[in-house]
Amino acid sequence: TGVWQERSNEHSQTATTKQWTLTTADLWITTGTWDNTTTGSWYSSYLGAGSYDASGGDDQYGWTGTGTIIESGAENWMYDYGSSYTLAADGTWAVVSGSGLGQGSKTTDWSDDASGDYGQPLDGGSLTGTWQASVENRGATSVEVAWTLGSDDLWTTTGSKTTTSNNDGQQSYTGSGSYLISSAYDDAAYGSSTTFNSSASESGSKDWSFANAITTIYAAGGSVTITVSSDSGASSASHTYSANNTTDAWSDSGNSSRWDSRDSWSQSLSEAKQSYWQESYITVTDSAVALTMGSTDASGGSSFVTGNHWLSNSTSTGAGYSSQSISNWSDATNAQDNYVYAASWSDDYDAASVLTSTFSDNNHAWGSSSNSGASYWFTSSTLDDPQGGVTTSASDSSASSNSSSYNTNPDAAGIGSPSVPALAPAIVPYFLLGAVLAVAQLPTPTPQLPTNATDPSALCLLLSPAVGPAVIAGGPVVWVVAGGAALTLGSYYIAGPWIGEQIGNWYYPPEGGRPQYWRARIQYAGVLESCPVYVYGFGPTAAAAISNARDRVPKGCGDAGNYHHPRTWRLR
Q: Smallest Cα–Cα separation from 383: which of 426, 438, 320, 445?
């Protein structure tokens, strides 16, 4: 059950004027104007919650529990636009002006949390425990656009739209149990007793996370769409079991004759496994080209240890004799397996739809296994006669063991223990160069992502200022952080042909004609400082100007002289 609400409004106003003029040819000519402004908005939201029975299974393998689902969402949109036309004497309408703004957002949230108890057989008893599961889906969309009416009576849209979606989940369980049974029988001639005891414990967990972010930048010459996706997950589980059994028996037939025996055995088992994986990719597309880059990383391991032991001991006595027999054996197994996998790939479609692909991977697996066993037996007997007792005995023992190991990449790091690779997010700048999309990988050190990676002011990464080979005037630069948000930090652009003369390290406009130079200006947004920061570079070519500007790194608010080396800077 839940509640919802919705509201909307729109106001439109139109003004029309007409003028009629009578010419000397006795013809009426109509001229005039037409103006319109429209504003509006709408909003909707909902909130609901409910619970359900999460029980299931059967009498042997069953679980009980309850779950709760909560959902909410909101959506709003606001717009304001207007246009003006004039009516010419020839009866045609012409655009005077037209512009508008629109912005909106949408959020959704859905969660499911459940927990309870479970049980399953354990020998003659039961293993019981608790379980928990949760999942959450979140989505958000933000739009901010501007409309401009051209002289051709066509509207042009500029701005951006960003959509993010996240899916996170977690499951876990833990349980234990034991079983004990014993019996006994005894009379004058025979007796026996048996005891069996076992215990087990288990636990496990699994979690996953899927994130997707799509940013579309609308420009007069076309649009660019960036898709950033990252998926990750981990799981672990363990199980232990042990059991032992003892049986005693005896008999007494009189005449000093008696027989006794004890048989016992024990068993133990321990196993565990864990795994981790992560996948991510970035896709950048415009009307002509498309580029996708991705990576996959995974690691995991498992272990298996088991042992068994058995012992039998019996004795018998009677008139003039006695004997004993002992048998004993044991075995053990210990196995380990581990793996680490990493891969990267790219698909690049150019303007002619020709595909260029790359792929590289590294697969490392290693493990070991050992087995051992031992056995022993012993017998003895004694006979009594008038000349003295005679004792005979015999015994024997044996032991065996073997081991093996494998390693698919002896030179790889991490041999001997599973490891989860430290994965640095890929940071990629892109530039819209007419109909060509250039993508370059930044040579960054391993950055540390903060908790709130979608907040530009909280992002603290050590970046290189290196950018692409060329950009057009006003071209946006977007730093894409894999697994996070797309952050627009500023604009790199060429200011155009610049005529100047060199005075020290500066160029100033001359009073007369001088050789032409290109000036490149780099503007950093307020993410770095509370005010814009500019850095200039000059050169005989556009590429040289950009290169010179890139060598100059801003350190604070100010003009072109406010820069320093080395070629690294930190986002505050």
A: 320
